[in-house]
Write a structure and sequence with these properties.
alpha/beta; 290 residues
Length: 290
């Protein structure tokens, strides 16, 4: 049988794992790391619907849904209304409006996972001017947690604006950082977890942050989101959103993202890593949240 010490260590590890899982659930709930992954788009579109979907044409957005899957027109219009409201906040912060119409797709969870190949924990994805949100199979689609839904819509709509401006070339850390920033307050416990991690670890470099969190372990993925948010807010505070918008729009030329970063912010990535490490050290001794 295990000793008391081993039992305590086991419980301690279990508690840490639970914290990590909860943080990941909040951070990855959005499913935004899948925005750069093409999941058989054309074939998926054909298999999403059992029959021709119902369509509502809004002022700026369209919505598609299968009315046979217990989605009522009233609920669909409510989603559309909330998306319309969310866009105003995001456009104000990112100082950009999309040039193309965006469609909101409401699909059963089974289709969301098996057809679109989205992870089961995901609450939404963005791809090719389409925001896709799942609802539980066999249940009437309804809006219960409006605050969470609004965060999801803001996050996914932010990706739409970022991807359009940068023609899909925005560095992943900045893409995720901006999308998190427009959501609202950071997930509960993220700042404390990040500070505890920094006590025994060096901050990630820009090069390390170029890796998708899907290729990282639980802890590394959590740190990826936390540091991406911190670095993005640092950039916004120091240079302003207009400068970041300038950077995003310049990504459509032939130069590499690293070269454009250097010419836009007048700083080499290595020097930026040093500046971020210094800023994180100051943040560590403060009581500021992310």
């Amino acid at each position: 049988m295990y000793s008391t010490k081993l039992d305590k260590n086991s419980r301690s590890r279990q508690s840490i794992n639970i914290i990590i899982i909860k943080l990941l659930y909040n951070l990855l709930l959005i499913g935004s790391i899948w925005l750069c992954i093409t999941h058989a788009a054309l074939a998926a579109e054909e298999k999403l619907w059992e029959k021709d979907p119902s369509v509502i044409i809004g002022r700026k957005f369209d919505i598609k849904y299968d009315s046979s899957n217990k989605i009522t027109g009233f609920v669909a219009r409510d989603y559309l209304r909330r998306l319309d409201k969310a866009t105003k906040d995001v456009e104000r912060i990112l100082k950009y409006e999309p040039q193309e119409r965006i469609t909101l797709l409401l699909v059963p969870k089974s289709k969301f996972v098996h057809v679109l190949k989205s992870p089961v924990w995901s609450a939404g994805t963005y791809r090719n001017y389409e925001i896709t949100l799942p609802f539980e199979d066999g249940s009437r689609a309804k809006i219960e947690d409006t605050e969470k839904l609004d965060r999801i819509l803001r996050h996914e709509y932010a990706h739409a604006l970022i991807m359009e401006q940068s023609i899909n070339k925005c560095p992943l850390w900045l893409n995720e950082g901006l999308a998190q920033m427009v959501e609202g307050n950071a997930p509960f416990g993220l700042a404390l977890y990040f500070k505890n991690w920094l006590k025994t670890n060096k901050p990630l470099s820009i090069r390390e942050l170029s890796l998708t969190p899907m290729n990282l372990g639980d802890q590394a993925a959590t740190i990826f989101y936390a540091q991406s948010l911190f670095m993005t807010k640092y950039l916004v505070k120091k240079y302003g959103m207009l400068k970041i918008r300038f950077f995003l729009q310049n990504l459509n030329n032939s130069a590499s993202p690293e070269e454009i970063f250097r010419s836009t912010f007048y700083i080499k990535p290595e020097k930026f890593d040093t500046d971020i490490a210094r800023a994180l050290a100051n943040w560590m001794v403060s009581e500021e949240d992310l």
